[in-house]
Please model this.
Amino acid sequence: MTEENKLFGMPAEKGRWVFVIIGFIINLCLGSVYAFSVFKVPCQDFFKVGAFEGGLPFMFFLAFFAGIFPFSGRWLEKIGPRNLGIIGGTILGLGWILSGILPGIWPNIWVLIITYGVIAGSGVGLSYSGPIAVATRWFPDRKGLAVGLTVAGFGGSPFVSAYIANNLITSVQLLNTFLYLGIAFLVICILLSLPLRFPAAGWKPAGWVPKTVGISAGEDYESSAMVKTASFWGLFICFIIGSLAGLMAIGIASPVAMGIIKLDAATAATLVMFFALFNGGGRPLFGWITDRVQPRSAAILSFIMILAASIGMLFAGPGSVALYVICFAAFWLCLGGWLAIAPTSTTTFFGAKYSARNYGIMLLAYGAGAILANFISGYASDLFGSYLRAFIPVGLLAFIGIFIAFFMMKTPHKKQA
Model:
């Protein structure tokens, strides 16, 4: 067999699954940001700040992750997934390590915002694209499932990282937790980036013939052409809505559990770990669904779930544990779902050739969703004294999203000259 027909000593059709495992583990490191709720109160105590300032490192992390990601697509095409993964992993690890050192010298929350939010967030923005692009190109026949499994590590990370971080904070204190995790992330991400590579152009699994019916195969669009299509804006707006609902749920899961459902802090933290399973599971589940039905059908399903969960939370109160768990599990599941729907749809609509670069632009919707989520939940709490009011605009947006997905999420067709 030629080198292109073998991977890791196996036929390429089997060996390519190793890339999914590698990508999953890398994403476990990258997705540790979703466990920031474990760090939030210790950070507030250490830096002597309130809840708003204590959440700024988390928001800056997501903003720089989404902001850097579009550039990573271009760099990925120039230097390849291996080199970009090494660079991104180094920056990620350095950001965490500096978060464990510099605040001990300058105990100011803005130091953590720079080291954790800006530096570590930028590292994730660089690292995130490689495993997704590798999965997409090695799995033209199962790209939704492969991408979903790869990024499941990101969404499911809190199930592991929250537990580890909580125990480390208890045993070695806050700053050493940042330091130790940073060293671990640095080593893991660099080592696992070494084998990442793309197949030769046009590679496909033996015996696989692309479908000519069902989901239309998109032509290759460069980013400048992609953003001029209605399909791009339909997908972009839908991605904002899906991200907004899920990221808001991640940010307020514990406060809602303790303040509205009246659970104790330990139970609330355990449920956050439980929800992480749905966030991680949403990726392969919706990836699998997107492979079998049109992307807009997967999007509409997610919005129906978000709408139902939003309505359900309007009836939540003290002791409504089952209602809270069902609704928040749905929010977390759909966030994970959109992080499979969006990259798969981008490739389906706009082709695989520029998929990394194009999805980089598409991920800006995730950053916009994160910012809007903070505004909606923050103002709901400050103005009305309860997070429950936040679910009204979320439900309305999900309702609107159903129609946007139905009419605008479809494969565009280039006009012939």
